Amino acid sequence: MINFEYIRASSVKAAVEALAKNPTGGFIAGGTNLIDLMKRGVTAPTRLIDINNLPLKQVEETSAGLHIGALAINSEVSANDLVKNNYPLLSMAFAAGASAQLRNMATVGGNMMQKTRCSYFYDTAMPCNKRQPGSGCGALQGHNRMHAIFGASDKCIAVHPSDMCVALAALNATVTVSGPKGERKILFTDFHRLPGDKPELDNTLQKGEIITGVIIPKNTFNKNHYLKIRDRASYAFALISVAAALEVSGDTIKKASLAMGGVAHKPWRLTEAEKFLVGKTATKENFSKAADLAIKGAKGYGHNNFKLKMAPIAIVEALMIATGIA
Amino acid sequence: MDKIKDQPFIDRVDGVQKVTGTAKYSAEYDFPGMVYGVLATSNVTKGTITAMDTKPAENAPGVLAVITHLNCPELPGYKNLPDQSKLADIKKGYRVFYDNIVRFNGQPIAIVVADTFERATYAASLIKAAYAKETFNTDIDVAEKSGKALEGNNFKEYVRGEANAWKNAAVKIEAEYKMPIEVHNPMEIHAITVNWESDTKLTMYEKTQALSSTQQSVMRAFGLKQENIRIITQFIGGAFGSAFNTWPHSMAALMAGKKVGKPLKLMITRNQMFNLVGYRPQAIQKMSMGASADGKLVGITHDATAMTASYNEFTEGIVNASRSLYNCPNVNTTYKVYPLDLSQPTWMRGPGETTGAFALESAMDELAYAAKIDPIEFRLLNYAETDLEDKKPYSSKFLKECYQLGADKIKWSARNPEPRSMKEGDWLIGYGTGSGIFSAWRGAAKVGARLLPDGSLILASGVTDMGPGTATAMTQLASETLGLHPRDIKFEMGDTNLPPGPMQGGSGTTSTLGTAVHNVCQSIKKKLADLVKDNPMFHTEIVHEVKVDDLLFENGFMMLKTDKSKKISYADVIKNAGLKEIELQEDSPGNPMANHSAFSYAVHFVKVMVHSRTGVVKIARCVSAVDAGKIVNQKTAESQIVGAVVGGIGMSLMEEGIIDHRYGRWVNNNFADYHVAVNADVPEIEVLFVNKPDPVLNPMGSKGMGEVGIVGFAAAVCNAIFHATGKRIREIPVTPDKLI
User: Fold this and answer.
1) Chain segment A64-75, per-residue pLDDT in tens
2) Distance (Å) from the C-alpha of residue B676 to the closest C-alpha of chain A?
3) Which of residues B572, B588, B604 is at a domain's end?
């Protein structure tokens, strides 16, 4: 194996300092993705800073909303009563992700930091601009069934694989980070980025920063559903997933928040569809119109053309289940 | 006797070992001073290696040796090859490190040996090779258009009656069915641990379904005496056909272990499981079938196209089921195989028939619907009472009973045959059926037996067990035949020092080895009877010299049939005779089946739920009715069918080997991206056995079952999906995108 240094940090400050001293190092929490990447030779950090001892495991209701520490375990957050009762969309998204074994190890921060599952990224003998900038995109003309239909570039058509992140994007969460320059907040929808000319950058974290948690504003969505369409019933990444959160009063939609997974380099918010739905009655017809708006600008790359058809179906389905019309 | 005969099964004799982790698999043998081998593989698909730089690997920490084609040890097996220049490429085969030719992407180009697995892995990543690349093709569609199919006896057209007679039928269908490469992917990764005791003697712990043939191939390759090669394979964690060959990684490990003179372990990676130990070949099949208006088959034309490696002519019976499953006077089949620049395919559960039955049984459903006849009724109308291909009667055939049992269980008659007519909420409901057929046979086998002074029995055979429960079945057979409690029987296996056993595979192990076990128990009974023939206890006014037929053998005692109070234990017989033990070896011949055809059958019934909008398919119910002759052990037999059906669910809904033909490299060679069924995909699987003995094949009346359990299953699923949705899906796997 390629040798690396392994240290344990006991505070956020110590973790940030340890990384600053060795910029080719990285943090490790659950390790469910990082270990794979190291084994496949995709990444080779020279120093692993184990952050599992940091006090970032809390799940608590605060005045700002629900605060989830970066090291809270996926399965524990999913099963947490606060989350289940007040943020059911998030609980559903967690439960739809990965496998039970992975959910028992994976952390919230790690989930945000996970890499795409694009096969070309994982095989070091294939071209991939994300892994090796300038080497080309293997998926563009290759096998791209799982790939993006929104916001891709000719440099990269990979998708972000998370379920949790799709729900957090819909729930208007904020990410809290700490770094050499202190603490700051990033809107969840600004945390992940589109590939553009720099597909090697997955997110907007600055050098040396560490995720400390996420904050979800008080939830007024009373109709929620996370729908995930996949090739098998468990342990499969989404072909299409939809996080649907509505505030419905009587039959009228007061607020709508929609995000999709499996379609872009980041959780994809459906802002046009949301705008359309506000003030409308919750009917299948309106959901279909919203879905048509949502899919505008989508582009297939061959094997994934089916997503152009599946995406609106999934949006309508998620909304119908959320509102109990289905 | 002691209720054993009333029970349908005994529990697995090795169950405790398996669930407590004491059952040892090939990667679990450790020795002092053990070293580790790791393969470096090519990242080009075709060409020659022009230069290699192994220095960085050799200089890496802990590295003991690097073997490539440049320093490959001289192997007698490599020297005594036929003149390679005179052989067609397809006949040349592939021998690891024999030459500098690259035949497939991911081909081993070096083995690195180091003192730890991690160091060997790292050093292997430092191996660099320069290649003269050549153009290649890994795409069957391209080969079909512009390539040249293999020629020879394996590819002759078969015609029975009139070719293409379907064209003149009142009702006819034509359809093309496609299936991708499928990979065995057993849970246990292929591994070998080798221990050379000297330059001419070794013990190896190898994942193999066939100890004897592995011993033979190692003997030939290394020029060793057979008795100096000991192979131990106690348990296999699934293989499904992937462990018959002595694969390149095993040869590499053997070479490396000999070179460094230390015990060496090599376990390939999950990625390498996709191209170093075979796979089920991709196939494109055209079915053209016709029937009379009253539902009698007029003609079947089955044109199959498949693929193999450029260096290995792999063929299987894809079109066989179309010749033998139904009573059709006119059948013609073609089988084309194109060589591709990929690693070689091999047998995979239900080889040939599984591929063929997907097409045949889908087409039967299409034709039944075209003729407006119930699919089961249609099959009964075309029931074959004799084997029209071999022109022989069946040794036994209870396929009709399978149709009946399965149809009753799933309440087939209650379905509305109209497609897209049944619903549960948002889910469309469909019922489908598909049948499976697989040859039943019996080979030659040896088994050793020792009846010990305490009356207990030790059976010994160099067979192995990849999961079906061979030791359990043999213990049960011996228990029933010899009249001994199963706890007094020990079945030793998985070692070439034991009497050579049959391979485990082809659904023939129980038939083959069971015959030997049955026979050796009969011989022991004769021997015991012989030892008591002068015992006055057994003499009556009529009988003065007791014979085996006069005696009952129960619970470790032999007794007069006419007076059970006159009895003596086996232990006492041995003691009274002054013997240490009774030791016998049985050499049972195969059954050539000169006058009969023998097949096992399965009929699968599947209930699917298809989401009316998202296209998601759930298998809601599986009922498989099986004619595998007399069932030896109900529990292990049922487990085999359950396992096969789980494989069938994967095959029909999610398994798909994907290769990027631009690079010739695998795209989804891992368990995250190559989907096999998980628990959530599998409902309760109901297994029904006809359980009637075959009177010809072997003394137990059993036939085979490991293979037939998957044959026809994928068609049953696709037929159920058609019934649910009205959509005919002719390309598996049926992922949601195909149904929206």
Assistant:
1) 999 999 999 999
2) 8
3) B588
